[in-house]
């Protein structure tokens, strides 16, 4: 698939959203943090599909690590968050942006996708922490923070997604004026 300029702009927007949302965080002693990056990842993956959500999450998470001083995690975050976006988006909206004619995923399907994405993220970061910190025990002690971050992301995604789905689907169905989509 060849990406158009529009595709690149949307993926860039999602990447920026994921990076900025990750800066909204609570630092935990010992180097862990609870943040809203997963909320952005989950919401955008459901809305835009696995390709956009996965690439946006991968790039945005890696950029956060780069500029946030977590350089040892850049590659891990790129793949962990990118695959999480592919999983959630693929299971809920498909891999390409949805059209208005395609039915939306059921609440149950969305919840299952979010839980699988959260489990993948926790497992991925457990392995990353184990590698970087050279201790499986320390890595295991950090899993709770990954799960808390994902739980917050799941709640936010469940609240925001129904409100935003119609707008996003209209954007991808046909070329229309943004003011018409927003009802202005």
Please give a structural write-up.
The chain has 184 residues and is mostly helical. The chain is 74% helix and 4% strand. The protein has a two-stranded antiparallel sheet. Strand 1 and strand 2 form a beta hairpin. Helix 1 packs antiparallel against helix 2 and helix 2 packs across helix 4. It is globular and about 50 Å long. The mean pLDDT is 90.
What are the SSEs and their pairings?
Blueprint: H1 5-23, E1 25-28, E2 32-35, H2 37-48, H3 50-67, H4 74-92, H5 107-133, H6 136-173, H7 178-181
Antiparallel strand pairs: 1-2
Helix pairs in contact: 1-2, 1-3, 2-3, 2-4, 2-6, 3-4, 4-5, 5-6
Number of strand elements: 2
| SSE string | HEEHHHHHH
Low-confidence stretches: none
Helix segment tally: 7
- Overall pLDDT metric: 90
What is the overall silhouette? globular
Derived from helix and strand composition plus strand pairing, the structural class reads: mainly alpha
Provide the helix percentage: over 70%
- The percent range for strand residues is under 5%
Strand order of the largest sheet: 1-2
Straight-line N-to-C gap: 34 Å
Radius of gyration in whole Å, from Cα? 16 Å
Oligomerization status of the protein chains: single chain
């Amino acid at each position: 698939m060849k990406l158009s300029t529009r595709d690149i702009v949307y993926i860039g927007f999602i990447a920026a959203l994921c990076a900025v949302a990750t800066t909204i965080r609570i630092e935990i002693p010992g180097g862990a943090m609870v943040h809203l990056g997963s909320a952005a990842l989950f919401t955008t993956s459901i809305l835009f599909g696995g390709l956009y959500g996965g690439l946006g999450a991968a790039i945005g998470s890696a950029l956060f690590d780069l500029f946030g001083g977590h350089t040892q995690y850049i590659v891990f975050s790129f793949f962990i968050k990118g695959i999480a976006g592919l999983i959630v988006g693929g299971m809920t909206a498909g891999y390409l942006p949805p059209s208005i004619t395609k039915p939306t995923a059921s609440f149950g399907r969305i919840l299952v996708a979010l839980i699988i994405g959260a489990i993948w993220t926790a497992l991925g970061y457990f392995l990353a922490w184990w590698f970087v910190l050279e201790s499986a025990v320390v890595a295991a002690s950090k899993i709770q923070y990954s799960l808390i971050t994902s739980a917050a992301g799941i709640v936010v995604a469940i609240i925001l997604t129904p409100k935003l789905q119609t707008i996003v689907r209209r954007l991808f169905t046909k070329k229309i004026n943004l003011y018409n989509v927003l009802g202005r």
